């Protein structure tokens, strides 16, 4: 196994998109081209540029459907939210890096509402739509336990996640509601998620299955 440097500083938006999405999808296993096992990759990025590109993509994601297959889109978003060791500096770890501008981190999170409203609502991915918040938060939040973040800026990112998920919970597609409930289960404190989920259940009729899942998320017990 060898190690190589992948210098993405100065990457264009089109090349940013291609890096994440323009990949063959492995046959017979999870869509994760980055798990080839052949090389160790060291990414070098401009954190501010990566965050700007991410926000631009999330604000206006629908063009992906004309350029890539559904399988490539699934794989690309699975890549973007996954904190995989070799490639996490491409996006997910940037949200929690205190040397990255806070305003750009918060804007990238806020733009995720458009990602759900414009793309995931009409074109849900098989797994990334549901697992998005879980995977973005897993290393930073849950590994540390009880949301004890070491810096005020990281806490600001987490709070913006809760606010954005609350907006997604109001979207009509059931898979968006399930994704938002799942996200609150993993990102929000009990004091935050309980009133949001109570209001959701009080504002609309839901079937027994969704209500049961919502209550499990309210209690922080959902997987």
Distance between the termini: 35 Å
The total of beta strands comes to 2
How are the strands ordered across the major sheet?
1-2
Structural class: mainly alpha
Average of per-residue pLDDT values: 91
How many separate helices?
Answer: 11
* Percent helix range: 55-70%
What order do the helices and strands follow?
EHEHHHHHHHHHH
What percent of residues are in strands? Answer: 5-15%
How is the main sheet built?
2 strands, parallel
**Rg for CA atoms:** 17 Å
Number of domains: 1
Keywords:
223 residues, mainly alpha, two-stranded parallel ribbon, 11 helices, 57% helix, 5% strand, globular
Description of the structure:
- Helix content is 57%, strand content 5%.
- The protein has helices at 13-21, 47-59, 64-67, 70-81, 102-110, 112-120, 128-142, 152-168, 174-187, 190-203, 208-218; strands at residues 2-7, 39-44.
- It has one domain.
- The chain is mostly helical and 223 residues long.
- It has a two-stranded parallel sheet with strand order 1-2.
- It contains eleven helices and two strands.
Q: What's the structural blueprint in terms of helices and strands?
A:
Blueprint: E1 2-7, H1 13-21, E2 39-44, H2 47-59, H3 64-67, H4 70-81, H5 102-110, H6 112-120, H7 128-142, H8 152-168, H9 174-187, H10 190-203, H11 208-218
Parallel strand pairs: 1-2
Q: What's the quick description here?
A:
The chain is built from eleven helices and two strands.
């Amino acid at each position: 196994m060898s190690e190589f440097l992948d210098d993405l500083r100065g990457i264009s938006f089109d090349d940013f998109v291609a890096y994440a999405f323009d990949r063959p999808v492995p046959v017979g296993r999870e869509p994760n081209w980055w798990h080839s096992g052949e090389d160790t990759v060291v990414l070098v990025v401009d954190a501010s540029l990566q965050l700007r590109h991410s926000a631009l993509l999330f604000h206006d994601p629908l063009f992906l459907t004309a350029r890539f297959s559904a399988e490539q889109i699934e794989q690309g978003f699975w890549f973007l939210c996954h904190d995989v060791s070799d490639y996490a500096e491409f996006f997910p770890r940037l949200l929690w890096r205190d040397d990255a501008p806070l305003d750009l981190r918060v804007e990238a999170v806020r733009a995720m509402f458009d990602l759900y409203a414009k793309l995931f609502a009409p074109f849900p991915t098989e797994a990334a739509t549901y697992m998005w918040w879980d995977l973005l938060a897993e290393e930073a939040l849950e590994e540390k336990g009880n949301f004890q973040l070491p810096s005020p800026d990281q806490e600001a990112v987490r709070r913006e996640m809760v606010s954005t998920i609350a907006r997604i919970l109001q979207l009509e597609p059931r898979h968006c509601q399930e994704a938002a409930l799942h996200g609150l289960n993993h990102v929000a404190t009990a004091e935050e998620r309980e009133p949001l989920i109570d209001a959701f259940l009080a504002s609309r009729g839901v079937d027994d299955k969704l209500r049961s899942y919502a209550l499990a998320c309210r209690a922080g017990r959902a997987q």
